[in-house]
Amino acid sequence: MDARFTEEQQEIRRTLRELATKRCTPDDVKAATRTPVGHDLALWGTLSAELGLPGLALPEECGGVGGTFVELALAGEELGRALAPTPLLATSGLAAPLISALGTEAQRSALLPKIAEGALTATLAVPGTGLATALGLVADNAGDWAGGGRAGGVQAGRQENGWRLYGQAEQVLDGHSAGLLLVAAHTGGFARSRTLLFLVREDAPGLVRVRQTAMDETRPQARIELRNVEAELLGTEDGDVTGALAAVGDTVATLLAAEAVGAADRALERTVEYVKEREQFGRPVGSFQAVKHRLADVYVQVQAARSAAYYAAWAASTPDEARVGGLALAQALEALRTGAGEAVQLHGGIGFTWEHEAHLYLKRATGDELLFGPVHLLRDRAAQAAELFAPGPGLEVAV
């Protein structure tokens, strides 16, 4: 592995940091989350039209830039520093790779260029609260998380004029504003039950989308209700949906890890700045040994998480390398949770006020862990996949 970044990659980092510093102040972030779409449309237009961010990891024949996942992870790290609310994670992290992996040639040609230019946003809708399971991050996704024929899931029925969907999906990232929904639905009945993905347009009759109150306002979520909604099958019925979801789970975990590293680094940076200025007993708080030790521990965690995220991004862009996105995400979420907690503590009384920016980072750590974790299950799943605790020859495991 070559740990050095190319000049082009460094330029992506510099450009995004300059842009985020100017247009993603804490007040800007809060204002953007309170708009109807939940993000700054003008900022998204700039990221799309001038920087080509939605198509950064898409091939040139699909209208993309033709970069690798390393570039997308670096972009995520810089946007994570500012907690910039954008549809990048849902559109380029979840939806676009699934369309690339499972879609027909006609579907890829029709949808991916629009996504690459920022004209179309998309997201993945999973029944209930099973997004982390569907992506294979905390459990095997070969189960019945899509409904299994029971109430509470999303069911797909074939009719003369195509497919129809019934059911409900909770916690859909950007579900209230995305122009295209990729809905995971159970089909085939009990005898031949399977999960397929379907394309649902934003203006489809019978589609009800309600924005929900989320712990982290920078990741807006919605409840999706499907009432006899017309849908288009993504790809073919024999597509490897669970395999594609698991592959996307690794890459989206890597993107999330990079964002968390950026957020943790910025939270630490702001805290160090503050303890140098705040005085107690006639001296800066940062001069006390106990405070130095606490911040040094956070620094070590952030650097370790950054190394894990970079390695996971490199592995995701390199054929035949073991995928470690889930482990990198666990490391990064833990670093962000610790860094945000110390930011609240070391800012003193002002840090405990709900309006202080330290809480934005604390909410991001908590919200991401609720959606894609928790950390201990991410690590447990990674250990299972690697057969870390598999019994040796002649050994029996008590049940």
UniProtKB/TrEMBL annotation:
KW Chaperone (keyword) present: no
Acyl-CoA dehydrogenase/oxidase N-terminal domain segment(s): 6-118
Residue ranges annotated for the Acyl-CoA dehydrogenase/oxidase C-terminal domain, each copy included: 255-385
Cofactor: FAD
Native species: Streptomyces endophyticus
The entry's keywords: FAD, Flavoprotein, Oxidoreductase
InterPro entries attached to this UniProt entry: Acyl-CoA_Oxase/DH_mid-dom_sf (IPR046373), AcylCo_DH-like_C (IPR036250), AcylCo_DH/oxidase_C (IPR009075), AcylCoA_DH/ox_N (IPR013786), AcylCoA_DH/ox_N_sf (IPR037069), AcylCoA_DH/oxidase_NM_dom_sf (IPR009100)
Keyword Oxidoreductase: yes
The protein's name: Acyl-CoA/acyl-ACP dehydrogenase
